[in-house]
Amino acid sequence: MEERRKRVAKERLAKERQARLIKRQNIKNNNYPSETQIPSGQEAYEPLDLRQKRLTKERKARSRKSNNNEREISDKLECIPRHDLGRIDQICVHCGAKFWMEEKDHSSNRTFPTFSICCAHGKVLLPPLTEPPSYLLNLYTSSESDAISFRKNIRRYNNVLACTSFGTNIDTFHGQGISNFRIHGQVYHRIGPLLPEEGHQPAFAQLYIYDSVHEIENRHNVMQELDEEILLNLLNMMDECNPYIQNFRHVRDLIQTNVPDEIFMVIYADRIQDLRRYNAPTASEVAAIMVGDGHELHTANRDILLKMRDGNLQRISEIHPSYDPLHYVLLFPRGDDGWHVDVPLIGSINRERVTAMQFYSYRLQIRDGDWIQNAGRLYQQYIVDQYAKIEQNRLNYLKHNQATLRTDLYNGVMDAIHANDNSNVGRRIILPSSFAGGPR
């Protein structure tokens, strides 16, 4: 009996050893797709042709199941109604801005819709943007190859022609998809002296003054991928129509005539001399060039004073009317003013001036004859820049009106003072709950 049990055990071990050898040989010959798909038990001895038929049948079953799942998902998607806003055919009766019906005021009906985000029911009345020269307008609207190349590289063309620098932390986007412009942190525009320091290359507005004989070469050193013919045509156009660049050219002419005295350039911040004038500003209206020792200068606090060489960069205030046209020379080639604190609000009892939000809400609307929306990536940068300006003005208001907001009553400062604990009491700027993006 004991010998029989040993014989049976040996035969079982021999069969298992033989099964493992067959399995190993099948894996070596690539008869199984992977080890996880190796059949066990009696399936290890399944003939190759039967195994292939079985695997084919299983693949077809999985494919039918996958197709059924896709069909069910497709049927569900077809049941979801398409979101369609219709045609943008609603017109504001006050300013002519175009809207979709769904953008109407909540208090108005669909028979007589009204819109307020553009001009606050006619309280915001801004001069229309002056039409650009025909050459630039053709670059914005044409389908020719040079116009397409210009719009593709429009931010580079603007940067090489701008009079001020654009400073911020730009979030770069890698990968496919629509173009976008993202920043992080504060935005600022800066302008330097009229001439570069010794040993430094000219930049921005200095390129219009310093070594203008080799101006195209100097600009190509800044941006080498640009078309030389387009750049030359844009420069000639700016010389004819842009009042700021005409002033910089005047400084160049004075320097070339070897004027011995110091030269100053003052860019005005006052724009309230004649509010009825909607024409493009002239060179004498936006800036003044003075020759002398500077004792006769009596500039306002917001005016920009540019000296020949002082080694410093000036930061242009967000409330200066030249903040936009000095940098976005291809959006405002005729020097149209940006927002400033003296823009009047019509027919309002509570406030007399247009806010930055109202100003740019008016400017960014779509109207017949508009061309600024064709500026592509430069238009995206302009929108982001103005959003940052609006937020900065809100923060400045909160910073300078802390006493009015009575923030000391809810930030714990009074408790610390009464407890004679002044070590941790500093000058904090409290953001109220009404500020979008604040910690509350």
UniProtKB/TrEMBL annotation:
It holds the Pfam family Helitron_like_N. Residues 359-440 form the Helitron helicase-like domain. Residues 1-19 have a biased composition (Basic and acidic residues). Residues 1-49 are annotated as: Disordered. It comes from the Eukaryota. It comes from Rhizophagus irregularis. This is Helitron helicase-like domain-containing protein. Residues 27-40 have a biased composition (Polar residues).
